[in-house]
Amino acid sequence: MKKNLIVTTQGSNLQIYDKIFRKLNYNGKIGFYTSFYRNFKNFKNKHDRNLFYLKEWEIFKESNLSKKRINFVKLNQMFKPGILWNSILSDRRLIYGKHCKYLEDYKCRFRDNELYKLIFTFVESFEKFFNFIKPDVLVGSVPVTFGEYLAIKYCEKKNIPTLQFHSSRLSNYFSLHDKTLGSSSHFLNIKKRGTFSVSTKAEAEKIIKNINSNGIIYEGVSVKKKSKIKIFNFIRDLLYSLKGEYLKYMDPISRNDHHDPGFISYWFVKNLLYPLKIFHNQSMLKKSKRLFSFNDLKDIGEFCFFPLHTEPEVSIQILGRPYHKNQIELLRNLGASLPFGMKLLVKEHPRSIGKRSSEFYERLLEIPNLFFIDSNLGSFDIVRKSKFISVISSTIGLEAIIMKKPVLVLGFPKYGDIFEKGIIRCYNLFELPQKIQKVVEMKTLTSKDISRSVCSIIEGSVAVNFYSKILKKRDRFSKDNELLESEELDILINYFNERINKILKRT
Fold this sequence. Notes:
- It is a single chain.
- By secondary structure, the protein is an alpha/beta fold.
- The chain is 47% helix and 13% strand.
- The protein has helices spanning 13-24, 37-41, 56-65, 72-78, 83-89, 92-95, 112-133, 146-157, 185-193, 198-214, 230-250, 252-255, 264-287, 314-317, 327-335, 358-365, 380-385, 395-402, 432-441, 447-459, 466-470, 485-506, and strands at residues 3-9, 27-34, 51-55, 137-141, 162-167, 173-177, 291-292, 303-307, 343-347, 370-373, 388-391, 407-409, 423-425, 462-463.
- Helix 16 links the parallel strand 9 and strand 10 (370-373).
- It is globular.
């Protein structure tokens, strides 16, 4: 079967996608847009004659050396309004500092002209790449780099279908979405059909029951594992960081790779700076008298629960615009739009504990009617006791919907369209008070509606332990099964083939 594909990759996804398409044996051209040099360097099959590459680090280099005059008219005509700047804003490496992944490093490293040249160089390079590959479909993950985002938008402009691999956040179900924002159309088509197998219904009820009993937990989410030999882990991670720093230093391309902020600096931040910041920030919040424990919830009356989103992350950069980098002002508006007497309760994201500065929390404490809940608490009981939930694109919104709690959505989460009747959307801050009144008064989804939506996701997805078993990421939640890695991969390959064939038939 001859099919030409463009595949956008980040990190170890390169190896996985290579295995998938090698097994599928489409016999056409496969063009990889790859953005992580260190991973590509270790890629064993990069010299295969059927594979072609567009390398981000080479685009960066060409852009730096380029003396070409930028054709702004051509660029703006090639894409819909806002797309070019959206591509930059979606990539944390372009609009934030080098250490933004683990610190509040929000100072842009690039001058405007450097960004213009980078985008212009990429578009020229990708246009040539596209014309050479002549893809039938583009496949990749949810875009988190400027190149991935523009590649998707370019293909959409050319009427080439795109598929983006994404976790459903329900158990270990993953799917290939045909949209960047909101729910994939194949979920909606399955739901519209409305008929499901006995096994699908049973699996859906099991998932719904688990969420209502224990809260939402899904394959790949980070889990804290208690270790009796912490000193061993401490030393092991230090040695690993030193080795990584040395290897990076010895390779001039790695030294300049924008994916690699450094190994040893992260180790120092995680092990030395984070504990100090956590202690300081916790002490400050306790002194403010605005830090609640779980026992305090029964005495505070009605409240809206807002889980803080980690920054920068795809949930903000892609699914949460225009609120990226501005949660403080969003919360200021949200708190002032609540019914008089209702409190706004916020909880820090687990991945942001120790990351944010004390100034961030001090600015939040300036907001009247805003209170903190202990960040070590899970969201489950907080959601249950809340009047309603407000999220940008957080998974907790999905948890709340299934628990029959009203949800105010401010972004474009993947579950948004499939659970449309269970949420109120707001994209205009002037409308916040009216939208909040609607969400307070809304009727939540029935058990039948929830079951139909969950069934639709199950039938449109594939059950695999992608992060824990296929990618072999440490300390990740894994769904119990007896399948080998190779068996999980075969299941994933069959799903990819099925979804690609279906979307090509549609076109």
